[in-house]
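Title: Comparing notes on inverse folding

I've been comparing how different people in this forum approach sequence design from structure. To keep things fair, I'm posting one structure and asking everyone to reply with a full sequence. Here's the target:
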């Protein structure tokens, strides 16, 4: 953890040090990163860095917390921006934003992947646990919102539903960006219109699985009315 000396630094300087460290951990992994390289990138003396963090592990844990806070702030803002939007449409917007998310959180992903796939560290579990529950937490909040508004069935097991939806969306996003995880659904590097069409299929499955029966019937009725209304307008 950071020392009191670090906490007394100007917030902009704190963020610069942590951001430089995050870039180096993302690029080189934990083992390949050094306090020397972080100090050089941040434009400070190595001795000063050790006054802020007593070890590379302490610095890395602070980087992980910083990245987690960044993801959390982004996700909570996303939920707030969608507070008046149907929960299933909100899930759809999250699914189809994959290319934006991929670019926005590329450094975060690289830090986690280096730990997940490359590093044999005694604190790997501690690090991964900080990220593991994040997206499931947001999914659960959305489902609770949907239940309160009559969009999701009250009897849905929130933990199970959040796990299923979160896992499927994660796999969908992985398939778009990583060819070895795109198994059978032809997602990898597809154009946005294809991603949106396949996302619609995915969300339709979520609606059937978790949507409230009355709500489902209402939506189906509206969909049936749309072609009829279109024909009526054309005839007139």
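Reply #1:
Here's my take.
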């Amino acid at each position: 953890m950071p020392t009191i000396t670090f906490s007394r630094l100007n917030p902009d300087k704190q963020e610069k040090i942590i951001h430089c460290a995050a870039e180096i951990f993302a690029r080189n992994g934990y083992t390949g990163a050094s306090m020397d390289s972080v100090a050089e990138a941040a434009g400070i003396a190595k001795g000063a860095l050790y006054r802020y963090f007593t070890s590379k592990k302490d610095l890395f844990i602070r980087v992980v917390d910083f990245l987690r806070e960044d993801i959390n702030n982004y996700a909570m803002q996303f939920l707030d921006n969608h507070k008046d939007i149907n929960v299933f449409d909100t899930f759809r917007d999250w699914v189809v934003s994959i290319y934006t998310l991929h670019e926005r959180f590329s450094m975060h992903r690289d830090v986690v992947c280096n730990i997940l796939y490359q590093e044999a560290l005694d604190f790997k579990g501690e690090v991964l646990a900080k990220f593991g529950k994040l997206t499931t937490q947001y999914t659960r909040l959305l489902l609770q919102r949907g239940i309160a508004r009559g969009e999701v069935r009250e009897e849905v097991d929130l933990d199970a539903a959040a796990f299923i939806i979160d896992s499927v969306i994660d796999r969908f996003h992985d398939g778009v960006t990583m060819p070895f995880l795109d198994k059978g659904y032809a997602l990898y590097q597809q154009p946005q219109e294809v991603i949106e069409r396949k996302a619609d299929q995915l969300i339709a499955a979520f609606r059937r699985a978790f949507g409230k029966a009355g709500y489902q019937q209402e939506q189906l009725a509206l969909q049936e009315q749309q072609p009829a209304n279109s024909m009526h307008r054309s005839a007139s």
